[in-house]
Write a structure and sequence with these properties.
- This is Sulfatase-modifying factor enzyme-like domain-containing protein.
- Pfam families: FGE-sulfatase.
- It comes from Potamilus streckersoni.
- By secondary structure, the chain is α+β, with helices and mostly antiparallel strands.
- Helix content is 24%, strand content 14%.
- The longest helix has 32 residues.
- The radius of gyration is 34 Å and the shape is globular.
Length: 374
């Protein structure tokens, strides 16, 4: 066998080895992703009437005034959508490009952007502390060079409303409405600031402590993003991360109260606050159950994620239909009253009858009633 034949055999063996290693690598990644499926779990919300909003006239986000609303039974994700779930979505929809991928950039807080990325891949923002980082997306949260391999149990970020809607629908779910989100967050407690009550507890959610935007003291044990399970359930419905960590998209449109709606650009409501927000609103937003923010459908940032919901039509109580016996007793329609004819419509005297003195007096006086014998 000549040297050319040996070369071909060697190349063939090498190609088989490369493809087999690639297949094993892909299988390993799939196994790793599937190991986080225990974060993809939903809880049934029975729905009903409840009070939404807060009694704070100083608020200008639309959470004031309080009002009564009602939601039908639905299912809600216990955790926000994780990076592992987003990875599975991208494997299923390989041609799908997120909004950040299409735009080529996303917003990241400057504190978390490495210096070399700031120099070559970022540009300043009108918003204090924010940078438009080229290449920042769900798989590279802080831009080129960052990774998600050790953050598969973190909430996915840099997702727009359009991404969130596509992701939820692909896995057979949908985005929650604002009312549904707040119902799940309150956990059955009405009129209170937090899912657990009215008393602030720093160890129950991931918020900002320190001078914004350069100092986050991490008094709540986390600086920046935290895993979805970091603080345990926040209310009686066993819901995690409803407040703090990342804002979450809803399907409800956002409108400013003092501007004609027809003049406003399309925006959607986000709920929950994030790790950049504070207890008292000294920096960014006040973190509380009722608070809300409006953003355009293509908005993406390092502190914006999503949580999915699903309808429960089989649990919706429908109006009781009347039984057959009851339906038969009730008339199908209200009978019309008998029509009283005008005197001019009648024969005078009625044809084929003999006119008597009594009849004459009744006709002349106009006292002629329906059904009365003349």
């Amino acid at each position: 066998m000549d040297s050319m034949a040996w070369t071909k055999i060697y190349c063939l063996i090498w190609l088989v080895y490369i493809f087999s290693c690639k297949k094993v690598h892909l299988q390993d990644i799939k196994d790793v992703i599937n190991s986080y499926d225990h974060f993809d779990i939903m809880k049934l919300m029975k729905g009903g009437k409840f009070i939404i909003g807060i009694n704070d006239p100083k608020s200008d986000t639309g959470e004031y005034p309080v009002r009564m609303t009602e939601v039908k039974p639905f299912y809600m994700d216990i955790y926000p959508v994780t990076v592992s779930q987003m990875w599975k979505f991208k494997h299923r929809k390989q041609k799908y490009k997120t909004t950040a991928e299409k735009k080529g950039f996303s917003w990241v807080l400057s504190k978390f952007v490495p210096d070399d990325i700031k120099l070559n891949w970022a540009s300043e923002s009108p918003e204090r502390g924010w940078l438009a980082v080229k290449g920042a997306m769900w798989s590279r949260p802080e831009g080129p060079g960052s990774s998600i391999r050790k953050r598969l149990d973190y909430p996915v970020v840099h997702v727009s409303y359009n991404d969130a809607k596509a992701l939820c629908e692909t896995i057979g779910k949908r985005l929650p409405t604002e009312d549904e989100w707040e119902f799940a967050a309150r956990g059955g407690l009405e009129g209170l600031q937090y899912p657990w009550g009215d008393k602030f507890k720093k160890m129950r959610m991931n918020t900002w402590q320190g001078q914004f935007p350069d100092e986050d003291q991490g008094n709540d044990q986390w600086v920046g993003l935290a895993p979805v399970y970091a603080y345990g359930p926040q209310n009686n419905f066993s819901m995690y991360n409803m407040l703090g960590n990342v804002w979450e998209w809803t399907s409800t449109k956002y409108y400013d109260r003092v501007v004609d709606r027809s003049l406003q650009e399309l925006r959607y409501v986000l709920k929950g606050g994030s790790y950049l927000d504070t207890r008292d609103g000294s920096y960014n937003y006040v973190v509380r159950t009722s608070n809300r923010m409006g953003q355009a459908p293509d908005y993406t940032a390092h502190n914006v994620g999503v949580r999915c919901a699903a309808s429960a039509p089989h649990l919706v109580k429908r109006p009781r239909q009347p039984r057959e016996e009851e339906a038969q007793k009730k008339p199908l329609s209200t009978p019309r009253p008998p029509r009283l004819h005008k005197l001019s419509e009648m024969a005078f005297p009625p044809t084929g009858t003999k006119e008597t003195e009594t009849q004459k007096s009744k006709w002349k006086s106009g006292r002629r009633w329906h059904g009365e014998e003349l």
